[in-house]
Amino acid sequence: xxxxxxxxxxxxxxxxxxxxxxxxxxxxxxxxxxxxxxxxxxxxxxxxxxxxxxxxxxxxxxxxxxxxxx
Length: 70
Fold this sequence. Notes:
Number of helices: 2
Helix content: 25-40%
Shape: elongated
Order of helices and strands: HEEH
Strand content: 5-15%
């Protein structure tokens, strides 16, 4: 993705952290040893609410819903 997407993607991660959503994987950006560079690893938010920003606005993600055994 172009570097111009970084603030957009970062804002989703920040929103998830602020709202206390649990990450099953990822949830933070990585930087190189020099502190430079941008890398957004795959992140999985564990059961975010339907009304959350990540579910409502981010179209580039897949939503995984859990189901009970009943």
